[in-house]
Each structure stands twice: as structure tokens, then as C-alpha cells.
Design a protein that fits this description.
The chain is an all-alpha fold and about 240 residues long. Helices cover about 75% and strands about 0% of the residues. Helix 3 packs parallel to helix 7.
């Protein structure tokens, strides 16, 4: 019976919303960082192979991809540590800790830490909302490219593909290359070869996965804010009523 009571207390001490948010954060960041890093590498390969003849035309894009990949490394480390901190704060705030250790009292320092986590997490959620929107841009580009590939396949059924050289995909209009880049666009047979390449389909899927990962991470941050706000209310106003989240 003593072991049973101990297990009940242990399970009761778990801040489940914070735990779920932590798991979502880890899963979302793993998708975003892992798939995003590989998608950027594949994008550089596609641009270098099909859309630019001169290395100077895509040197800015190459530098941006390299720097952003370093940012991804930092984001993965930061969110891993921050998720652990928020989970620890959830354990601290739960009233089950009070029930386990007796007359536990929240201190002013503890309440200040909880409020700090709320503010920081809210700011991170706003920033990550912008990252989530930014991640949709390459998905939109590859979606348009996939639609163009679909149109080429339909037209190719009725006539030789070489007659449809006017069907093009211009990387310059999406800001991937400067306007003086040559050729800057892929048309006809070149575009068809891109559509058939495994690199194109892999990159498209990777960007979709990175976009989904960013959405999951954003959901985790929102859940963090809700849970931390409730925990702060428990520590500040309802600490003696045994409420918990």
C-alpha cells in the first residue's frame, strides 16, 4: 500500500500540460531543424545545377543557407535547454509538490521566476510565429513548381515536350537569385528533368516537414504560455487551495 501511495503521488506530481508541451517542442524542433537543414542543402544543389551558370549568381544564396544552417544548430540547442527549464518550472509550480513535501510555500523569487518564464515564452511565441510564416515561403515556391510540373506532364501527353519550351519556372522572381542571373529560370526539357529528379521531390517533402515542425513548435510555445500562466496564478493567488496544472 505504501508503494501504491508513492506511485500515485509521483504520477500526481507530473505537470502534464508542461510535459506534453515539452514533447511537442522537442518533436517540432527536431522536424524543423533536421528537415530544414537538409532542405537548404538540397535547395543549393538545385539552384547550382539548374538555375545558375555562374557561381557569383548564387553566392548570396549560398552564404545565407550556410549562416541559416548555423542558426539551426543554435536553435536546436537553445530549445532543448529551454524546454527542460520550462518542464522543471512546471514541476516546481504543481501543487502535488506541496502535497508530497508538506507545507511547501512559494517564495517571491519563485513567483518572479514563473513570471519571467511567462514573458520570455510569450516573446518567443511571437518571434516563432514570424519564423513559422517565413517557413511557408519555400513551401509556396515548391508548390508552384510542382503545379508547373503537373501542367508539363499533362501537355506532354498530347505533344512532344520540346514544343512546350515556353513553360518556365523563374527562381529570380522569388528572390532566390538576382535579376541579372543567367539563366535564372528553367524551361521546357530542363524543367521537365527537374520535375523527374528525386532531389526536387525530396526537397519539397523536407520543406513541408520543416513547416509542420515549426507549427508544432509554435503550438508547444502557446501551450507553455497557458500552462505557465496558470502555474503563476497557482503560486500567486491559489497556492493554499491545492490546485494544480
Amino acid at each position: 500500500m505504501g508503494c501504491y501511495d508513492c506511485c500515485i503521488r509521483c504520477f500526481g506530481a507530473v505537470p502534464y500540460p508542461s510535459l506534453v508541451a515539452t514533447l511537442l517542442c522537442f518533436a517540432g524542433m527536431a522536424l524543423f531543424c533536421g528537415c530544414g537543414h537538409e532542405a537548404l542543402t538540397q535547395t543549393e544543389f538545385l539552384v547550382e545545377t539548374y538555375f545558375a551558370r555562374n557561381a557569383q549568381d548564387y553566392v548570396v544564396l549560398s552564404s545565407f543557407i550556410q549562416y541559416f544552417q548555423y542558426v539551426i544548430y543554435g536553435l536546436a540547442s537553445f530549445f532543448f535547454l529551454y524546454g527542460i527549464l520550462l518542464l522543471a518550472e512546471g514541476f516546481y509550480a504543481t501543487s502535488a509538490v506541496k502535497q508530497t513535501f508538506g507545507e511547501f510555500r512559494s517564495t517571491s523569487c519563485g513567483r518572479c521566476c514563473s513570471l519571467t518564464f511567462i514573458v520570455v515564452t510569450y516573446i518567443l511565441a511571437v518571434i516563432w510565429l514570424a519564423v513559422f510564416a517565413f517557413t511557408a515561403i519555400p513551401v509556396y515556391f515548391f508548390f508552384n513548381m510542382a503545379q508547373t510540373c503537373h501542367n508539363i506532364n499533362i501537355l506532354a501527353e498530347g505533344s512532344p515536350l520540346g514544343q512546350h519550351g515556353w513553360i518556365c519556372m523563374d527562381a529570380r522572381q522569388y528572390g532566390l537569385l538576382p535579376w541579372n542571373a543567367m539563366p535564372g529560370k528553367a524551361c521546357g526539357l530542363t524543367l521537365a528533368s527537374i520535375c523527374r529528379s528525386s532531389e526536387f521531390h525530396l526537397t519539397y517533402d523536407l520543406y513541408i516537414a520543416a513547416f509542420a515542425g515549426a507549427g508544432v513548435a509554435l503550438l508547444a510555445l502557446v501551450l507553455y504560455v497557458v500552462a505557465a500562466t496558470y502555474n503563476y496564478a497557482v503560486l500567486r493567488f491559489l497556492g493554499r487551495k491545492g490546485l494544480r496544472w
